[in-house]
Design brief:
Low-confidence stretches: 128-145
Shape: elongated
InterPro entries: CheY-like_superfamily (IPR011006), OmpR/PhoB-type_DNA-bd (IPR001867), Sig_transdc_resp-reg_C-effctor (IPR016032), Sig_transdc_resp-reg_receiver (IPR001789), WalR-like (IPR039420), WH-like_DNA-bd_sf (IPR036388)
CATH topology of the largest domain: Rossmann fold
Number of domains: 2
Keywords: DNA-binding, Phosphoprotein, Two-component regulatory system
Pfam family, one: Trans_reg_C
Protein name: Response regulator
Order of helices and strands: EHEHEHEHEHEEEEHEHHEE
CATH architecture of the largest domain: 3-Layer(aba) Sandwich
Number of strands: 12
Radius of gyration: 20 Å
CATH class of the largest domain: Alpha Beta
Strand content: 15-25%
Length: 246
């Protein structure tokens, strides 16, 4: 019989920490409970959890700050994270998801919703990943599939190196903005609805569609003033697309 998934709960308020642990354990998970980032690091050095539930406001470091550097920590790299916090503003949600959170839950939470989201994240991370081939964008497509390079007009993107340039000048993009732009550039002319983009980039049914609009606004700001500033266009009532090159 396989061992139940282990969840690391990083929450400084004891009452909430115990409540979250009770909800998780009632659903069959094992829990490790800590109240700070220092304690979380110590726990990770002993046991690698299957998922981390992370509060945003902690006594020794911001949960958001720790989340951003988590991929560089060997004991935690690759472990999915769900933010569980009282801060529910749209910009807080966007910041958390941009920083690498797999989902974002606002307190107070419904126990069934919490366990449903945990199951959804664990399913996504346990499912085998298949790499989709990069589609050609015509004459502008690079043939080197190993590098996964896509060209669309003045834009060039290298997925493996996480690089995006316009006429050789680098763009400053967040992880989600890069994924959005790469998706558009890979399929010029195709219209993507907000639902399509949520499924492809966020892979979560719990993220609001307004999050897409916020990221699209940021993406357009990143492209503003470059030769690619008009590359992405809105298709009224449908979604967004990358202009196809003639």
């Amino acid at each position: 019989m396989s061992e139940p998934p282990v969840i690391l709960i990083v929450e400084d308020e004891v009452a909430i920490r115990e409540l979250v642990a009770f909800v998780c354990e009632t659903d069959g998970y094992k829990t490790i409970r800590v109240g700070s980032i220092a304690e979380a690091r110590a726990a990770l050095a002993k046991v690698r959890p299957d998922l981390i539930l992370l509060d945003l406001m902690l006594p020794d470091m911001s949960g958001l700050e720790w989340l951003k550097g988590l991929p560089e920590e060997p004991d935690a790299a690759g472990v999915p994270v769900i933010m569980l916090t009282a801060r529910g503003d749209e910009m807080d949600r966007v910041a958390g998801l941009d920083a690498g959170a797999d989902d974002y839950i606002v307190k107070p939470f419904l126990p069934r919703e919490l366990t449903a989201r945990i199951r959804a994240v664990l399913r996504r991370h346990s499912a085998p990943r298949t790499e989709a081939p990069v589609e050609s964008t015509g004459e502008s497509a690079d043939a080197d599939e190993a590098e996964r390079i896509v060209r669309c007009g003045p834009l060039m993107m290298n997925e493996a190196r996480f690089e995006a340039t316009v006429e050789g000048k680098p763009l400053k993009l967040s992880a989600k903005e890069f994924k959005l732009l790469y998706l558009f550039a890979s399929k010029p002319g195709r219209v993507f609805s907000r639902e399509n983009l949520l499924a492809a980039v966020w892979q979560s049914a719990f993220v609001d569609e307004r999050t897409v609009d916020v990221h699209m606004l940021r993406l357009r700001k990143a492209l503003a003033g470059t030769a690619a500033e008009n590359l992405i266009e809105t298709v009224r009532g449908v979604g967004y697309r990358c202009r196809a090159e003639n």
